[in-house]
Design a protein that fits this description.
19 strands, about 500 residues, 12 helices, about 20% strand, Sulfite Oxidase, Chain A, domain 2, 5-stranded mixed beta sheet, 5-stranded antiparallel beta sheet, globular, alpha+beta, Immunoglobulin-like
Length: about 500
């Protein structure tokens, strides 16, 4: 049996699928960011209040983008079903519903960060295709009652309807998957990245002796595949090295436009740098340590003749994201990089290829601009970067932090066995001088520290502990910075300038 509503759902969902599929196909001739779901998702990110983003990110973590895209597809299916039901009652109701949805998609495409006028074309053509599909499917269908005895006629030509729905589904699938494949073939720069040979650089190229104690499940050097990723890019920007340019302008004497070839021709250095996200909870994993290769950003600013009254470097990525860094931090002698490499290879696509900025000692939202294409020398009074517009502090100080990586929470250990309590501590560009562990409410006891090449990296630590009797134990850790300041015990939320408090895990000892 088939009800009128189920036929409407099917018709509407297929029309929505045609809109998305045709939009993907048209985007293959323009750019991936113009695809309907990506354009809508990018605009939703900027429209969503910061108070709503934080709990969503906290709940979803690094899966937030995937869940957002899935949510958009589900919403389109629901809206499509409603449109289909309305169309069976009155075709113009259905067409009006599609027009409203298409208008919202067009608005998103035209107002998303770094949008282009042509980004609206996939929305318009997809909307038109959905309208045609809706008209055809409604006309080849009649009411198909769930109760034939009610007197409503069954489908006049069931075969025609089934053929129409099958053809529509095939059109949506071919256009959608074909369009996505064409986008990948035309715009993906993985092959371009594979051809890049980074010049040699001065500095350390291997893990410093004694930096990795081997007692933690988290290695001292974070592999590229495990490096945390927090950004707003639903589709990873695809920029070929031959087309990349960086413009440095604003409060400078000599604006600079730098190509990728010119960047690689500059003196490059390798530096171990730990990056941390301001959204990292106490004990969280949004912190990573890698070897970055790049040119010194301060040298470029000196060549441009940055003005003394410039207190902010407003960096923009190719997708329109803006990040504002304090100029004085870049120019104070720390080795801030316009980076091209990560752990000995060109930057991964998702971490900023062809080039990104890495500034030691600051949270990522005020320092780590991926896919950077523009640096404007300006002031904090004149311009606000993306995250600061949401209420995050413009010039935060990174918080001294420490974390227990082993043992894991609720792990069972054996009485009498020595347990290597281990983890990392960090206070970038200040340094960690001591780490201590507390068992239950006992005294704080010093852990053994690894060596580090500079104050810009995290520091591994290990503390041998032997439980003497069975029961539950709470292990806490705290760090002391290079100046003798002990880690803040006050519990603070990540918003607006980073979390604070002591990390603790509870384990159980058994005989």
């Amino acid at each position: 049996m088939r009800s009128r509503a189920s036929i409407g759902w099917l018709i509407g969902i297929l029309a929505a699928a045609v809109a998305v599929g045709m939009g993907e196909l048209v985007a293959a001739f323009l750019r991936p960011a113009a695809a309907p779901v990506i354009a809508v998702g990018n605009r939703i990110i900027t429209l969503t209040p910061e108070s709503a983003k934080r709990p969503a990110i906290a709940a979803a973590g690094t899966n937030d983008k995937t869940l957002l895209i899935i949510g958009i597809y589900l919403l389109l299916a629901v809206l499509g079903a409603l449109v289909g039901v309305a169309a069976l009652r009155n075709l113009y109701y259905g067409l009006g519903g599609i027009a409203v949805i298409g208008a919202f998609g067009s608005y998103c495409a035209l107002t998303a960060n770094a949008s282009r006028g042509t980004d609206v074309l996939p929305q318009l053509i997809g909307t038109a295709a959905a309208m045609v599909a809706l008209v055809v499917l409604v006309r080849v269908s009649r009411e198909w009652s769930a109760e034939p005895s009610s007197g409503d006629p069954l489908l006049a030509d069931r075969r025609l309807f089934l053929q129409g729905t099958a053809a529509t589904a095939a059109l949506a699938a071919v256009a959608g998957f074909g369009g996505r494949a064409a986008q990948h073939a035309r715009f993906d720069v993985a092959g371009d990245r594979a051809t890049v040979k980074l010049p040699a650089a001065s500095g350390e190229h291997t893990v410093p002796r004694g930096a990795d104690l081997g007692k933690s499940p988290v290695p001292w050097r974070t592999p590229n595949s495990a490096f945390y990723r927090i950004d707003t890019a639903l589709a990873v920007p695809q920029i070929a090295s031959s087309s990349w340019q960086l413009r440095i302008h604003g409060l400078v004497d000599h604006p600079i436009t730098l190509t990728y070839r010119q960047l690689l021709a500059r003196p490059l250095v390798d530096r171990w740098i730990t990056l941390c996200c301001v959204s990292n909870e106490v004990g969280g994993d949004l912190v990573s340590n890698s070897l970055f290769r790049g040119a010194l950003l301060a040298d470029l600013l000196r060549e441009a003749g940055v003005h003394a009254d410039c207190d902010q470097l407003l960096m923009s990525s190719s997708d329109g994201m803006t990040i504002g860094a304090p100029t004085k931090v870049v120019m104070d002698g720390r080795q801030s990089l316009l980076a091209v490499g990560m752990n000995g290879a060109p930057l991964p696509l998702e971490h900023g290829y062809p080039a990104r900025v890495v500034i030691p000692g600051l949270y990522g939202y005020v320092s780590a601009c991926k896919w950077v294409v523009d640096i404007e020398a300006t002031t904090f009074d004149r311009r606000q970067a993306y995250w600061v517009q949401g209420g995050w502090v413009a010039q935060p100080t990174i918080r001294l932090s420490s974390r227990i990586d082993r043992p894991s929470p609720q792990e069972v250990v054996s009485v009498g066995d020595t347990v290597a309590v281990a983890g990392v501590a960090w206070d970038q560009h200040v340094g960690v001088s001591k780490v201590e562990v507390q068992v239950n409410d006992g005294p704080w006891q010093a852990a053994r520290l690894a060596t580090v090449p500079s104050t810009d990296t995290w520091r591994q630590w290990v503390f041998p502990w032997t439980p003497q009797k069975s029961g539950s134990y709470r292990l806490r850790v705290r760090a002391t910075d290079a100046g003798g300041t002990v880690q803040d015990t006050q519990v603070r939320d990540v918003f607006p300038s980073g979390a604070s408090g002591l990390h603790a895990v509870t384990v159980r000892a058994v005989i």
